[in-house]
Write a structure and sequence with these properties.
heterodimer, A: about 675 residues, mainly alpha, 2 domains, about 60% helix, about 0% strand, globular, disordered N terminus, disordered C terminus, B: about 220 residues, Four Helix Bundle (Hemerythrin (Met), subunit A), about 75% helix, elongated
Chain lengths: ~675, ~220
C-alpha cells in the first residue's frame, strides 16, 4: 500500500515556509537536478498522452495474457484487456499529472520540501497541487461537472418515460442510461461535500495551515476525472444493464460496458478512501491550540464521522469490485452458484458498503445546514452535543443495517426482524440531529438569506425522505414497495432533496470565502424557489406512481400512469431549468461580472471567516489560539472564537450581535 | 484581520509553531498508520466473510473439492518468511531505541529481503496450483486473496525501503547527537515515528498472513 506517510517537512526550512505549493516549486536556490521543459512537464496534456499510452499498454498486456486461452480468444471480448487498459490508463493519467514523481524520488531517500504556493493564476487549478484550497475548488468544479452530466442523463430517462408506448430508446439503451445516471450520481455524491468543502474548509475551521497528507489529498482529486472518463466510456462499450448496484450474476454475464463500471467505481473507491483518510488524520492532529473537541465546529464533526465511514466501508466495496473483476476476467466463481460461489455474496458485500454510503451522503448535508443555522438564527446551536452524538450514532449503526436490502431476495426470514429493528433504530440518532436543527430554529430571528433558504428546504425534503425510509424499513411495507418508484422517490428525497440542497446552500454560503466573490442573491432566491418547487413537483408524485405499481428500471409502464409520468417529466425539465439558473448565476457572479464580497458577509463567528477571502497561502498569518466555541451568538460577553480577532473589532462585534441585520 | 486579541494569552511565537508542526506531523503518522490498519482490516474482512459465507453455503457441493490443494510447503514458507520479516524488524527497532542504529539498518534490509521472498513465494505459488480459479468457491477465494495480500505487502515493503533509504542518506546528519535512535531533531523524530508506524502495520500484515494461512490450510 503505497501510502505517503511522510509529511515531508524539510530539515532546514522554517515553519513559515512549510506551506503547500506545487511539488517541485522550490525557490531557485534550492532547485537541483535535471528539469524537463515546462511544455513536457506535469499537467493535463502530458497526463492525457500518458493515459492513452497506459491504456494501450494495459490492453496489449491483457491480450498477451489471454492469448493462450481459447475460451477468451474465441469469445471476441477480452475483459482482462479492457480492465487492465483502464487501470494502466489511470496510472498513466496520475503519472502524467506528476503524482508519482515524489514517491519515486522518496525511494532514493530524498525528501521533497513543501514550498509556498507561488503561482496564483488560473493555471494552478489544472495542475497537481498541494494547496488544500486549490484542491477544494478543483473538487467543486469536478463535482459540478459530474452532477450536470448525470443530471442530463436523468432528463434522458424522463424523456423516455413521457410515453408508455412511443419510445425514444430501446429497453437496452434505457437501462444503460439509468445505470450510468445512478452510478455517476452515487460516485459524485460520495465526494460532493467532503471533496470541495471538506478539503477547503476543514483546515480553515480547525486553525491549520494545510491538510495532514497534501499529496494524498491531491491524488484523491485527480483520480476523480479518470473515474469520470472511464464510466462515460462505458456507453461506447454497450453500457451495463445492472444499474448502480451491479447485482450478480447479471454483472458477471454482462458485456464489455460492465468492465468500465468495475474500473470506474474501483478508481473512485480509492479516491474516496484517500479523501476520508486525510480528513480524519487532519482533524485529529492538526487542530490549533485551544480547539478542543467541544469547540470543534459541527461541520467538522459531520465531515469527520462521514470520513470514518468512507475509510472503513469503502474497502469492502473495493474488495467486491475486485472479486467481480476477477469473475469477469480470470473466471473465478465468487458469484456463480453452480461453481461454489453465490450471487447473494455480491449483495452482502455491496450493501455492507452501500448502506453506510447512504449516511456518507446524509451526514455531510446535516453538517452543512447545522453549521449555517446558528449564523442565520443568531443563536447557538440547540443541544450541539446531542447532534454530535447523533452523528456518531448514525455512523456506528450504519454498519448493522445492510441486510434490509436483502429482505426481498432470499434472506433467512428469521433474520428479518433483527435488521428491521436496527434499521428503525437508526432513525433515533437521525432524529436527534433533525430535532437539534428544529430546536435551533425555535424562536429564532431568522435571516432568510439564500443559504438559509436552502437549509430550510433541506429540512422539509429530508423529513419526507426520512419518514418514507422508516416506512420502507418495515418488512411488509418493503416487500410491497420493493423495486418500485416509491423506493426511488424515497432516496431521491434524501439524496437530492437533502444532500444536494445542502450542497447548493453551502456553495452560496462559502463561495464568498473560497473566491472572495459573491453570488447574485436575487438570482439565488429564484434558483432556490424554482428548485424547491420543481424538485417536489418531480419526486412527490413518484411516491404515488410507485404505490400504483410502476417498477424501476423498466422503460414501459401501464397506460393509466401516463398522466402522472408526464407531470413528473415536465417537472423534471423545469427542475433542470432551475439548476441551469444556478449555473448561470455561478458563471455570471464568479467569472463574467464578479462582485467583491465583504470579508465576513454573514457576520459569522466561524474561524474560517477570520482570515481574508480567499485565504492567503498558509491560511493565517500565524496559528490562532482558540478562545471560545464557534456558535456563541447573542452573548455580548462572549470571547471571539480566536485571538486573531479583537473583542472590540468590527468583525467580532458583528458576529456577536443578535440584531436583525440583513445582508 | 490580525488584530492583537484582548485576551491574556499571547500569540504563538514562530519557534513554537515549529514545535506544533512537528507534533502534528508525528500525530498524523501515528493516526494514519492506525487508520490504514482499519481500512485494510475491512478489506481483509471482505475476504474472510467471503470465505465463511461460501463455505457455509457450499453451493452445489462445490465449496472445496477434495483434490484441490495449494502447496502447503510454499504457503507455509511464505507465511514464515513474512512473520520472520516482521519479527526481525520489530527486534531491530527495539535495538534502535537502545541507540544501536546499525542493528536496525541491518534488520531493516534483512526484513526487506524476507518480505520480498514472501511475496515472491506467494506469486510463485499461484503458478503451481492444481486447480483453476473458477473450479470452486475455495479456489476463487484463494486466487483472489493472494494478489491482494501481495500488493499490500509490496506496498509495506516500499514504505520500508523509503525508510531505509532515508536513514542511509542522512546517516551522518546526527552524528554525535545520538544518531537516528537518540537524536531529538525534528527530522530524526519524524523518521522514528514513521518507523514505529511502519512496524505496527507490518506486524498487522504478518498476523493477517497467519490468520489466512490458518483459513486456507487448516480450516479449508
Amino acid at each position: 500500500m503505497a501510502v505517503d506517510m511522510s509529511n515531508a517537512v524539510g530539515l532546514d526550512v522554517p515553519a513559515a515556509e512549510q506551506v503547500p505549493g506545487s511539488p517541485g516549486e522550490l525557490p531557485p536556490g534550492r532547485r537541483r537536478g535535471f528539469r524537463l521543459p515546462s511544455a513536457l512537464g506535469p499537467g493535463i496534456p502530458r497526463a492525457l498522452v500518458f493515459a492513452a499510452l497506459g491504456y494501450l499498454f494495459g490492453h496489449w498486456i491483457g491480450n498477451l495474457i489471454a492469448a493462450g486461452y481459447s475460451q477468451v480468444t474465441n469469445s471476441g471480448s477480452n475483459n482482462a484487456a479492457i480492465i487492465l487498459g483502464y487501470l494502466f490508463g489511470t496510472v498513466g493519467w496520475i503519472g502524467g499529472m506528476g503524482v508519482l514523481t515524489y514517491p519515486l524520488t522518496k525511494m532514493t531517500g530524498r525528501e521533497e520540501l513543501l514550498a509556498p504556493q507561488r503561482s496564483v493564476g488560473p493555471g494552478r487549478y489544472f495542475r497537481y497541487t498541494l494547496d488544500h484550497k486549490v484542491v477544494g475548488i478543483q473538487y467543486m468544479v469536478g463535482m459540478i461537472v459530474y452532477f450536470l452530466t448525470a443530471g442530463l442523463l436523468a432528463l434522458a430517462i424522463r424523456t423516455e418515460l413521457l410515453s408508455p408506448t412511443n419510445h425514444v430508446f430501446g429497453p437496452g439503451v434505457y437501462i444503460e442510461v439509468v445505470g450510468e445516471h445512478g452510478t455517476m450520481m452515487m460516485m459524485m455524491m460520495t465526494s460532493v461535500i467532503v471533496g470541495p468543502f471538506g478539503n477547503f474548509l476543514v483546515p480553515l475551521m480547525i486553525g491549520a495551515r494545510r491538510m495532514a497528507f497534501p499529496r494524498l489529498e491531491a491524488l484523491s482529486f485527480w483520480l476523480t476525472p479518470a473515474a469520470y472518463i472511464i464510466l462515460l466510456s462505458s456507453l461506447w462499450l454497450g453500457g451495463f444493464p445492472t444499474g448502480w448496484t451491479g447485482y450478480a450474476p447479471l454483472s458477471v454475464q454482462a458485456g464489455r460496458g460492465m468492465d468500465a463500471y468495475v474500473a470506474a467505481f474501483g478508481v473512485m473507491a480509492i479516491s474516496i478512501i484517500l479523501a476520508g483518510f486525510n480528513i480524519v488524520v487532519t482533524v485529529i492532529n492538526l487542530r490549533a491550540p485551544g480547539m478542543t473537541w467541544g469547540r470543534l465546529p459541527v461541520f467538522v464533526w459531520g465531515v469527520m464521522t462521514t470520513s470514518f465511514l468512507m475509510v472503513l466501508a469503502t474497502p469492502v466495496l473495493f474488495g467486491a469490485l475486485y472479486m467481480l473483476g476477477l469473475d469477469r476476467t480470470i473466471q473465478t466463481s465468487f458469484f456463480t452458484d453452480t461453481l461454489g460461489g453465490s450471487s447473494y455474496l455480491w449483495e452482502n458485500l455491496f450493501w455492507f458498503f452501500g448502506h453506510p454510503e447512504v449516511y456518507i451522503l446524509a451526514l455531510p448535508g446535516f453538517a452543512i445546514v447545522l453549521e449555517m443555522l446558528p449564523v442565520f438564527c443568531r443563536k447557538p446551536i440547540f443541544a450541539q452535543k446531542v447532534a454530535i452524538a447523533g452523528m456518531v450514532g448514525v455512523s456506528a449503526l450504519s454498519f448493522f443495517v445492510w441486510q434490509h436490502h436483502l429482505f426481498d431476495s432470499g434472506i433467512n426470514p428469521d433474520m428479518r426482524p433483527l435488521f428491521m429493528l436496527t434499521t428503525e433504530l437508526i432513525s433515533i440518532p437521525t432524529g436527534f440531529i433533525f430535532l437539534v436543527g428544529m430546536g435551533t430554529l425555535w424562536k429564532a430571528r431568522i435571516r432568510l438569506t439564500v443559504p438559509m433558504m436552502f437549509a430550510m428546504g433541506f429540512f422539509f425534503n429530508f423529513l419526507l425522505g426520512g419518514i418514507s425510509g422508516v416506512f420502507l424499513s418495515d418488512v411488509p411495507a418493503d416487500t410491497t414497495a420493493h423495486g418500485t418508484f416509491f423506493v426511488m422517490a424515497h432516496f431521491h428525497y434524501t439524496i437530492m432533496g437533502g444532500l444536494i440542497f445542502a450542497f447548493f446552500g453551502g456553495l452560496y454560503y462559502w463561495l464568498p470565502k473560497m473566491t472572495g466573490r459573491s453570488m447574485n442573491h436575487r438570482l439565488g432566491k429564484w434558483n432556490f424557489i424554482a428548485m424547491f418547487v420543481f424538485f417536489n413537483s418531480t419526486f412527490l408524485p413518484l411516491f404515488a406512481v410507485g404505490e400504483l405499481g410502476q417498477p424501476r428500471r423498466v422503460f414501459e409502464y401501464a397506460k393509466r400512469l401516463q398522466t402522472l409520468n408526464d407531470w413528473v417529466s415536465i417537472s423534471a425539465f423545469l427542475l433542470g431549468f432551475a439548476i441551469l439558473l444556478f449555473v448561470i448565476n455561478l458563471v455570471w457572479s464568479m467569472i463574467i461580472k464578479p462582485v467583491r464580497s465583504p470579508e465576513n458577509p454573514w457576520h459569522s463567528r466561524g474561524l474560517e471567516w477570520q482570515t481574508t477571502s480567499p485565504p492567503p497561502p498558509g491560511n493565517f498569518d500565524r496559528i490562532p489560539i482558540i478562545l471560545a466555541g464557534p456558535y456563541e451568538y447573542g452573548k455580548p460577553d462572549a470571547l471571539p472564537m480566536s485571538d486573531l480577532v479583537s473583542r472590540t473589532s468590527p468583525v467580532a462585534a458583528a458576529a456577536a450581535t443578535d440584531s436583525e441585520r440583513t445582508i | 484581520m490580525t488584530d492583537v486579541a484582548e485576551s491574556a494569552l499571547p500569540p504563538i511565537p514562530a519557534d513554537a509553531e515549529e514545535g506544533l508542526a512537528l507534533s502534528a506531523a508525528i500525530g498524523s503518522i501515528w493516526t494514519g498508520s492506525r487508520l490504514l490498519i482499519g481500512a485494510c482490516s475491512f478489506l481483509y474482512a471482505a475476504f474472510a466473510f467471503t470465505f465463511f459465507y461460501l463455505r457455509s453455503l457450499n453451493s452445489y457441493g462445490r465449496w472445496h473439492p477434495k483434490a484441490q490443494h495449494p502447496s502447503l510447503l510454499i504457503g507455509t514458507a511464505a507465511t514464515v518468511a513474512l512473520v520472520a520479516a516482521a519479527l526481525l524488524h520489530y527486534y531491530g527497532l527495539s535495538r534502535l531505541r537502545h541507540g544501536l542504529n546499525l542493528d536496525w539498518r541491518v534488520a531493516g534490509i534483512a526484513s526487506l529481503g524476507l518480505g520480498l521472498l514472501s511475496a515472491g513465494l506467494q506469486i510463485y505459488q499461484l503458478t503451481r496450483l492444481n486447480f483453476f480459479p473458477g473450479s470452486s468457491g475455495y479456489a476463487s477465494v484463494f486466487v483472489g486473496w493472494v494478489p491482494v495480500h501481495v500488493v499490500l505487502l509490496l506496498g509495506a515493503l516500499y514504505w520500508l525501503e523509503t525508510l531505509v533509504a532515508r536513514s542511509l542518506r542522512v546517516r551522518n546528519a546526527w552524528h554525535g547527537q545520538g544518531d537516528l535512535g537518540g537524536s531529538v531533531t525534528p527530522e530524526a523524530t519524524r523518521l522514528r515515528a514513521s518507523l514505529d508506524a511502519f512496524n505496527y502495520f507490518f506486524v498487522f500484515l504478518s498476523l493477517v498472513g497467519v490468520a489466512f494461512w490458518f483459513l486456507f490450510y487448516v480450516i479449508d
